[in-house]
Design a protein that fits this description.
Layout (H helix, E strand, L loop, with lengths): L2 E5 L24 H10 L4 E5 L5 H13 L3 E5 L9 H6 L1
Parallel strand pairs: 1-2, 2-3
Length: about 90
Amino acid sequence: MRIDAHQHYWRYAQEGYEWMGERNILKQDYLPAHSLPYLRENGLAGTVAIQARHTLEENDFLIELSKTNDFVKGVVGWVNLCAANVSDVIAQ
């Protein structure tokens, strides 16, 4: 099975995506439906979604995408490893 190991998804809003700067092509929604044709065209069975923002809400968003899109095979989220509750967040 061939997998795309690094795919970002987001619903664009100016707040939270300041890192995009002036790269206007990025300032739009990028969701699984956008990448699926490219994955299929290149013989890939799925992808791994990687966080684009440093928030726990981003993790929840990506996990939900993985539940509703069977070709999203995994999620690499974000966690503050210095937080007092890091064990609880990772367990979640």
